[in-house]
Request: fold
Amino acid sequence: MISASSPVIAQGFLQDSLLLVPYFIRSMFSNTIVGNVAHLELATHEGREFLAITMYVKDQFDGLCRIKFNNSNGLLTAYNNGTLVVGQQLILTQWEVRINMIRTHYTKDNALVPLKHPEVALTRVRAVIGAPPAAKQTAASVAVKAEPVVEELLF
Reply:
């Protein structure tokens, strides 16, 4: 339990984290969220299969935020069909999105340590599959640049 006299409050960690809640609600869900899938995992809970999705979203200051949510409908089907892969772009809409958790710090040796990328856990997410991941270039796929041939012309 964190009390008002706790060093956590005194250092401002918890206060800064709580100030992020209105920011996330106003800035992230007033518009569409576009990001790329970082991790996909099939999971089962109480006999129901679902897809646990983690994606990264860039904010207006080029910082990264990790968005986590589950889906048991269209995205699960797309994953099973091989359509949804890591690196795929996802577009999240604001339709009744609920924030379950915002996590900005973790505890290590009784001290709060900031996460490199804050996490937001969502429910009731509507997602649309966007652009496929960029194809990785291999040595065989790189086009060979033709060198110009210079010949002398006789006049």
